[in-house]
Protein backbone atom coordinates (compact mmCIF):
# COMPACT_ATOMS: atom_id res chain seq x y z
CA UNK A 1 0.00 0.00 0.00
CA UNK A 2 1.33 3.39 -1.04
CA UNK A 3 2.28 5.58 1.91
CA UNK A 4 0.40 8.86 2.08
CA UNK A 5 2.52 11.98 1.72
CA UNK A 6 3.05 14.37 4.61
CA UNK A 7 1.39 17.62 3.56
CA UNK A 8 2.33 21.03 4.93
CA UNK A 9 0.28 24.16 4.22
CA UNK A 10 1.86 27.60 4.07
CA UNK A 11 0.53 31.16 3.83
CA UNK A 12 2.41 34.13 2.34
CA UNK A 13 1.50 37.36 0.54
CA UNK A 14 0.46 37.67 -3.08
CA UNK A 15 3.30 39.42 -4.85
CA UNK A 16 6.07 37.82 -6.90
CA UNK A 17 8.49 38.67 -4.08
CA UNK A 18 6.33 36.96 -1.45
CA UNK A 19 4.85 33.99 -3.31
CA UNK A 20 7.09 32.73 -6.12
CA UNK A 21 10.26 32.00 -4.05
CA UNK A 22 8.17 30.01 -1.56
CA UNK A 23 6.68 27.90 -4.34
CA UNK A 24 10.15 27.41 -5.89
CA UNK A 25 11.77 26.37 -2.61
CA UNK A 26 8.84 24.06 -1.82
CA UNK A 27 9.16 22.40 -5.23
CA UNK A 28 12.87 21.78 -4.75
CA UNK A 29 12.38 20.57 -1.17
CA UNK A 30 9.76 18.08 -2.40
CA UNK A 31 12.21 16.80 -5.03
CA UNK A 32 14.73 16.19 -2.26
CA UNK A 33 12.05 14.72 0.04
CA UNK A 34 9.48 12.94 -2.18
CA UNK A 35 7.44 11.88 0.85
CA UNK A 36 6.60 15.55 1.60
CA UNK A 37 4.27 17.98 -0.17
CA UNK A 38 4.20 21.73 0.62
CA UNK A 39 1.28 23.82 -0.64
CA UNK A 40 1.56 27.62 -0.49
CA UNK A 41 -1.47 29.96 -0.42
CA UNK A 42 -1.29 33.74 -0.85
CA UNK A 43 -3.14 36.67 0.69
CA UNK A 44 -3.13 40.39 -0.09
CA UNK A 45 -0.50 42.71 1.34
CA UNK A 46 -3.16 44.35 3.54
CA UNK A 47 -4.29 40.96 4.87
CA UNK A 48 -0.61 40.15 5.42
CA UNK A 49 -0.35 43.15 7.73
CA UNK A 50 -3.77 42.72 9.34
CA UNK A 51 -4.84 39.12 9.87
CA UNK A 52 -3.91 37.68 13.23
CA UNK A 53 -1.06 35.20 13.33
CA UNK A 54 -3.08 33.37 15.98
CA UNK A 55 -5.86 32.70 13.46
CA UNK A 56 -3.45 31.76 10.68
CA UNK A 57 -1.48 29.35 12.90
CA UNK A 58 -4.65 27.29 13.40
CA UNK A 59 -4.95 26.77 9.65
CA UNK A 60 -1.36 26.67 8.37
CA UNK A 61 1.90 24.90 9.26
CA UNK A 62 4.14 27.61 7.79
CA UNK A 63 3.55 31.34 8.02
CA UNK A 64 5.38 34.19 6.34
CA UNK A 65 4.83 36.99 8.86
CA UNK A 66 5.33 40.72 9.27
CA UNK A 67 7.73 41.28 12.19
CA UNK A 68 5.41 43.52 14.27
CA UNK A 69 3.41 40.34 14.89
CA UNK A 70 6.36 38.87 16.84
CA UNK A 71 5.21 40.08 20.25
CA UNK A 72 1.67 38.83 19.71
CA UNK A 73 2.89 35.46 18.38
CA UNK A 74 5.25 35.07 21.34
CA UNK A 75 2.54 36.01 23.85
CA UNK A 76 0.07 33.52 22.38
CA UNK A 77 2.69 30.77 21.77
CA UNK A 78 1.03 30.04 18.43
CA UNK A 79 4.39 29.69 16.67
CA UNK A 80 7.41 27.73 17.83
CA UNK A 81 10.70 29.26 19.07
CA UNK A 82 13.38 28.06 16.65
CA UNK A 83 15.94 27.94 19.48
CA UNK A 84 14.25 24.73 20.66
CA UNK A 85 14.57 23.04 17.26
CA UNK A 86 17.57 24.34 15.28
CA UNK A 87 21.29 24.11 16.05
CA UNK A 88 22.89 27.08 17.79
CA UNK A 89 25.44 27.37 14.96
CA UNK A 90 22.69 27.80 12.35
CA UNK A 91 20.96 30.54 14.33
CA UNK A 92 24.29 32.24 15.04
CA UNK A 93 25.00 32.38 11.30
CA UNK A 94 21.53 33.89 10.77
CA UNK A 95 22.22 36.50 13.44
CA UNK A 96 25.72 37.35 12.21
CA UNK A 97 24.48 37.68 8.62
CA UNK A 98 21.36 39.65 9.43
CA UNK A 99 20.53 42.46 7.03
CA UNK A 100 20.24 45.34 9.49
CA UNK A 101 18.06 44.33 12.42
CA UNK A 102 16.06 41.76 10.41
CA UNK A 103 17.09 38.85 12.66
CA UNK A 104 16.49 40.82 15.86
CA UNK A 105 13.04 41.87 14.63
CA UNK A 106 11.78 38.29 15.17
CA UNK A 107 13.51 37.87 18.53
CA UNK A 108 11.29 38.45 21.53
CA UNK A 109 11.69 37.39 25.15
CA UNK A 110 15.10 35.95 24.21
CA UNK A 111 13.63 33.51 21.67
CA UNK A 112 13.65 33.45 17.86
CA UNK A 113 10.06 33.19 16.57
CA UNK A 114 10.76 33.45 12.83
CA UNK A 115 13.70 33.22 10.44
CA UNK A 116 14.41 36.41 8.46
CA UNK A 117 14.00 35.11 4.90
CA UNK A 118 13.13 38.55 3.44
CA UNK A 119 14.60 41.99 4.20
CA UNK A 120 13.17 45.38 3.29
CA UNK A 121 12.96 49.01 4.32
CA UNK A 122 11.76 52.13 2.50
CA UNK A 123 14.34 53.12 -0.11
CA UNK A 124 14.29 55.48 -3.08
CA UNK A 125 13.43 54.44 -6.65
CA UNK A 126 13.94 56.28 -9.91
CA UNK A 127 13.28 56.14 -13.62
CA UNK A 128 16.72 57.24 -14.90
CA UNK A 129 15.31 57.73 -18.42
CA UNK A 130 12.69 60.23 -17.19
CA UNK A 131 15.14 62.11 -14.98
CA UNK A 132 17.43 62.45 -18.00
CA UNK A 133 14.56 63.74 -20.17
CA UNK A 134 13.77 66.32 -17.47
CA UNK A 135 17.43 67.33 -17.27
CA UNK A 136 17.32 66.67 -13.54
CA UNK A 137 19.88 64.78 -11.50
CA UNK A 138 18.94 62.25 -8.83
CA UNK A 139 17.62 64.11 -5.75
CA UNK A 140 20.15 64.15 -2.93
CA UNK A 141 18.42 66.41 -0.38
CA UNK A 142 14.87 67.02 0.81
CA UNK A 143 14.91 70.37 -1.05
CA UNK A 144 15.84 68.56 -4.30
CA UNK A 145 12.95 66.17 -3.66
CA UNK A 146 10.52 69.02 -2.99
CA UNK A 147 11.54 70.78 -6.21
CA UNK A 148 10.85 67.61 -8.23
CA UNK A 149 7.55 67.03 -6.40
CA UNK A 150 6.45 70.56 -7.31
CA UNK A 151 6.84 69.52 -10.96
CA UNK A 152 4.39 66.67 -10.36
CA UNK A 153 7.01 63.96 -10.95
CA UNK A 154 7.15 62.35 -7.48
CA UNK A 155 4.97 59.59 -6.03
CA UNK A 156 4.97 57.42 -2.90
CA UNK A 157 2.47 55.40 -0.86
CA UNK A 158 0.04 57.44 1.20
CA UNK A 159 -1.84 54.48 2.62
CA UNK A 160 -2.25 54.78 6.41
CA UNK A 161 0.28 52.06 7.31
CA UNK A 162 2.93 53.51 4.97
CA UNK A 163 2.24 57.06 6.17
CA UNK A 164 2.79 55.94 9.76
CA UNK A 165 6.08 54.25 8.79
CA UNK A 166 7.12 57.47 7.02
CA UNK A 167 6.16 59.50 10.10
CA UNK A 168 8.46 57.25 12.14
CA UNK A 169 11.18 57.79 9.51
CA UNK A 170 10.91 61.58 9.72
CA UNK A 171 11.04 61.40 13.52
CA UNK A 172 14.14 59.15 13.55
CA UNK A 173 15.88 61.34 10.99
CA UNK A 174 15.09 64.41 13.09
CA UNK A 175 16.95 62.83 15.99
CA UNK A 176 14.13 61.23 17.98
CA UNK A 177 13.05 57.59 17.62
CA UNK A 178 9.31 57.17 18.35
CA UNK A 179 7.76 55.31 21.28
CA UNK A 180 10.69 55.59 23.68
CA UNK A 181 8.56 56.22 26.77
CA UNK A 182 5.06 55.33 27.99
CA UNK A 183 3.55 58.81 27.68
CA UNK A 184 4.09 60.07 24.15
CA UNK A 185 4.94 58.82 20.68
CA UNK A 186 7.35 61.68 20.18
CA UNK A 187 8.01 65.09 21.79
CA UNK A 188 5.81 67.97 20.72
CA UNK A 189 8.76 69.89 19.29
CA UNK A 190 9.86 67.03 17.03
CA UNK A 191 6.29 65.99 16.21
CA UNK A 192 5.18 69.43 15.05
CA UNK A 193 8.33 69.88 12.95
CA UNK A 194 7.93 66.45 11.34
CA UNK A 195 4.22 66.82 10.54
CA UNK A 196 4.78 70.20 8.88
CA UNK A 197 7.72 68.85 6.88
CA UNK A 198 5.81 65.74 5.79
CA UNK A 199 2.80 67.82 4.73
CA UNK A 200 4.99 70.21 2.72
CA UNK A 201 5.86 67.22 0.53
CA UNK A 202 2.48 65.42 0.56
CA UNK A 203 0.78 68.59 -0.71
CA UNK A 204 2.51 68.02 -4.08
CA UNK A 205 1.66 64.32 -4.48
CA UNK A 206 -1.26 63.25 -6.65
CA UNK A 207 -4.22 62.01 -4.60
CA UNK A 208 -4.21 58.63 -6.37
CA UNK A 209 -1.26 57.70 -4.16
CA UNK A 210 -3.60 57.63 -1.14
CA UNK A 211 -4.82 54.34 -2.69
CA UNK A 212 -1.48 52.73 -3.58
CA UNK A 213 0.76 50.45 -1.54
CA UNK A 214 4.51 50.43 -2.33
CA UNK A 215 4.48 47.88 -5.13
CA UNK A 216 1.49 49.62 -6.74
CA UNK A 217 3.59 52.80 -6.71
CA UNK A 218 6.28 50.87 -8.59
CA UNK A 219 3.67 49.52 -11.02
CA UNK A 220 2.56 53.11 -11.63
CA UNK A 221 6.16 54.21 -12.21
CA UNK A 222 6.89 51.39 -14.66
CA UNK A 223 3.58 51.29 -16.56
CA UNK A 224 3.29 55.04 -17.06
CA UNK A 225 5.84 57.77 -17.80
CA UNK A 226 4.86 60.44 -15.30
CA UNK A 227 6.51 59.60 -11.98
CA UNK A 228 10.29 59.87 -12.22
CA UNK A 229 11.13 59.39 -8.55
CA UNK A 230 9.79 57.75 -5.41
CA UNK A 231 11.64 59.05 -2.33
CA UNK A 232 10.69 56.23 0.05
CA UNK A 233 8.75 53.00 -0.33
CA UNK A 234 9.46 49.48 0.89
CA UNK A 235 11.85 48.25 -1.79
CA UNK A 236 10.97 45.50 -4.29
CA UNK A 237 14.04 44.28 -6.16
CA UNK A 238 11.76 42.72 -8.81
CA UNK A 239 11.36 46.11 -10.50
CA UNK A 240 15.12 46.40 -10.94
CA UNK A 241 15.28 43.13 -12.92
CA UNK A 242 15.26 43.17 -16.71
CA UNK A 243 11.99 41.96 -18.22
CA UNK A 244 9.91 42.13 -15.03
CA UNK A 245 8.16 45.40 -15.87
CA UNK A 246 7.72 47.66 -18.89
CA UNK A 247 10.51 49.95 -17.65
CA UNK A 248 13.43 49.30 -15.32
CA UNK A 249 13.63 51.06 -11.96
CA UNK A 250 16.90 51.91 -10.25
CA UNK A 251 16.93 51.86 -6.45
CA UNK A 252 18.97 54.13 -4.17
CA UNK A 253 19.67 55.19 -0.62
CA UNK A 254 17.42 57.92 0.79
CA UNK A 255 17.80 61.68 0.54
CA UNK A 256 19.21 63.77 3.38
CA UNK A 257 17.14 66.39 5.21
CA UNK A 258 20.00 68.90 5.03
CA UNK A 259 22.86 69.57 2.65
CA UNK A 260 25.82 67.50 3.80
CA UNK A 261 23.66 65.57 6.25
CA UNK A 262 23.30 61.81 6.56
CA UNK A 263 20.58 59.98 4.61
CA UNK A 264 17.20 59.49 6.27
CA UNK A 265 16.53 56.60 8.68
CA UNK A 266 13.58 54.54 7.46
CA UNK A 267 11.43 51.97 9.30
CA UNK A 268 12.46 48.33 8.91
CA UNK A 269 10.06 45.95 7.16
CA UNK A 270 10.70 42.53 5.66
CA UNK A 271 9.17 39.14 6.34
CA UNK A 272 10.02 36.11 8.45
CA UNK A 273 9.19 32.44 8.13
CA UNK A 274 7.47 31.04 11.22
CA UNK A 275 6.27 27.52 12.07
CA UNK A 276 2.89 26.98 13.72
CA UNK A 277 2.94 25.30 17.10
CA UNK A 278 -0.40 23.70 16.18
CA UNK A 279 0.84 21.55 13.29
CA UNK A 280 1.20 17.76 13.24
CA UNK A 281 4.61 17.79 11.51
CA UNK A 282 6.58 20.53 13.27
CA UNK A 283 9.98 18.86 12.71
CA UNK A 284 9.38 18.69 8.94
CA UNK A 285 8.19 22.31 8.84
CA UNK A 286 11.29 23.42 10.79
CA UNK A 287 13.58 21.55 8.40
CA UNK A 288 11.96 23.23 5.39
CA UNK A 289 12.29 26.64 7.12
CA UNK A 290 15.99 25.92 7.71
CA UNK A 291 16.33 25.02 4.01
CA UNK A 292 14.71 28.30 2.86
CA UNK A 293 16.76 30.47 5.26
CA UNK A 294 20.09 28.78 4.51
CA UNK A 295 22.68 31.03 2.83
CA UNK A 296 23.03 28.61 -0.09
CA UNK A 297 19.32 28.79 -0.98
CA UNK A 298 18.96 32.49 -0.13
CA UNK A 299 21.64 33.54 -2.64
CA UNK A 300 20.49 31.16 -5.40
CA UNK A 301 17.04 29.56 -5.67
CA UNK A 302 15.28 32.09 -3.41
CA UNK A 303 16.55 35.28 -5.03
CA UNK A 304 16.50 33.82 -8.56
CA UNK A 305 12.75 33.29 -8.18
CA UNK A 306 11.91 36.86 -7.25
CA UNK A 307 12.73 36.73 -3.53
CA UNK A 308 14.39 39.50 -1.59
CA UNK A 309 16.66 37.58 0.79
CA UNK A 310 17.21 38.13 4.49
CA UNK A 311 20.76 36.72 4.46
CA UNK A 312 23.60 39.20 4.05
CA UNK A 313 25.58 36.86 1.78
CA UNK A 314 22.90 37.25 -0.89
CA UNK A 315 22.92 41.05 -0.61
CA UNK A 316 26.70 41.14 -1.13
CA UNK A 317 26.73 38.55 -3.92
CA UNK A 318 28.12 40.00 -7.19
CA UNK A 319 25.98 37.76 -9.40
CA UNK A 320 22.80 38.70 -7.50
CA UNK A 321 23.61 42.41 -7.90
CA UNK A 322 24.35 42.03 -11.60
CA UNK A 323 20.88 40.57 -12.08
CA UNK A 324 19.18 43.41 -10.17
CA UNK A 325 20.93 46.58 -11.39
CA UNK A 326 22.84 46.68 -8.05
CA UNK A 327 19.59 46.89 -6.07
CA UNK A 328 21.06 45.10 -3.05
CA UNK A 329 24.40 46.87 -2.99
CA UNK A 330 22.81 50.31 -3.45
CA UNK A 331 20.13 49.96 -0.78
CA UNK A 332 22.03 47.95 1.86
CA UNK A 333 23.16 51.09 3.79
CA UNK A 334 19.49 52.05 4.29
CA UNK A 335 18.73 48.56 5.62
CA UNK A 336 21.70 48.62 7.98
CA UNK A 337 20.57 51.78 9.78
CA UNK A 338 16.78 51.20 9.63
CA UNK A 339 14.68 51.78 12.76
CA UNK A 340 13.17 48.73 14.45
CA UNK A 341 9.61 49.71 15.38
CA UNK A 342 7.93 48.47 18.58
CA UNK A 343 6.72 44.87 18.62
CA UNK A 344 4.93 44.61 21.96
CA UNK A 345 1.58 42.84 21.64
CA UNK A 346 -0.59 45.97 21.79
CA UNK A 347 1.41 47.98 19.26
CA UNK A 348 -0.57 46.37 16.46
CA UNK A 349 -3.64 48.23 17.78
CA UNK A 350 -1.71 51.49 17.49
CA UNK A 351 -0.28 50.60 14.08
CA UNK A 352 -3.76 49.76 12.73
CA UNK A 353 -5.26 53.13 13.66
CA UNK A 354 -2.56 55.80 14.01
CA UNK A 355 -1.87 56.06 10.27
CA UNK A 356 -5.45 57.26 9.65
CA UNK A 357 -4.85 60.23 11.97
CA UNK A 358 -1.72 61.30 10.08
CA UNK A 359 -3.36 60.70 6.68
CA UNK A 360 -6.28 62.93 7.69
CA UNK A 361 -3.80 65.67 8.61
CA UNK A 362 -1.86 65.32 5.34
CA UNK A 363 -5.08 65.49 3.31
CA UNK A 364 -6.97 68.17 5.23
CA UNK A 365 -4.45 70.01 7.39
CA UNK A 366 -5.26 70.90 10.99
CA UNK A 367 -3.58 71.60 14.27
CA UNK A 368 -0.35 69.64 14.72
CA UNK A 369 -0.63 69.61 18.52
CA UNK A 370 -4.13 68.09 18.22
CA UNK A 371 -2.81 65.40 15.87
CA UNK A 372 -0.03 64.53 18.33
CA UNK A 373 -2.46 64.52 21.24
CA UNK A 374 -4.68 62.01 19.42
CA UNK A 375 -1.66 59.83 18.58
CA UNK A 376 -0.45 59.94 22.19
CA UNK A 377 -3.85 58.92 23.53
CA UNK A 378 -4.00 56.02 21.07
CA UNK A 379 -0.45 55.02 22.00
CA UNK A 380 -1.20 54.95 25.73
CA UNK A 381 -4.31 52.85 25.01
CA UNK A 382 -2.15 50.38 23.07
CA UNK A 383 0.05 49.89 26.15
CA UNK A 384 -2.96 49.06 28.34
CA UNK A 385 -4.42 46.95 25.52
CA UNK A 386 -1.35 44.74 25.90
CA UNK A 387 -1.83 44.24 29.62
CA UNK A 388 -5.56 43.64 29.22
CA UNK A 389 -5.29 41.22 26.33
CA UNK A 390 -1.83 39.68 26.61
TrEMBL record:
Chief location:
periplasm
Which InterPro entries does the record cross-reference, listed alphabetically?
A: Bact_solute-bd_prot1 (IPR050490), SBP (IPR006059)
Q: Where in the cell is it found?
A: Periplasm
The regions listed as transmembrane in this protein's record are: none
Family in the record: Belongs to the bacterial solute-binding protein 1 family.
Q: What is this protein called?
A: Carbohydrate ABC transporter substrate-binding protein
Amino acid sequence: MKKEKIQLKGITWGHTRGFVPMVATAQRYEELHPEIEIVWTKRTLQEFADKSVTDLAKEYDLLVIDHPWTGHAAAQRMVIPFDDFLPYTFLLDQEENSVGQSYASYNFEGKQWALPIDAATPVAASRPDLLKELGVSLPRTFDDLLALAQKGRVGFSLLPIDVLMSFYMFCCTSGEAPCQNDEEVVSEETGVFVLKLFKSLADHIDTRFYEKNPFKVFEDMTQQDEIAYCPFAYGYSNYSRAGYARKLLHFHDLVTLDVGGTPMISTLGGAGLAVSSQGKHIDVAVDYARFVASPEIQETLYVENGGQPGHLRAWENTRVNLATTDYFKNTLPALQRAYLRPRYDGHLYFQDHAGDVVVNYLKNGGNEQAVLSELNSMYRNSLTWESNNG
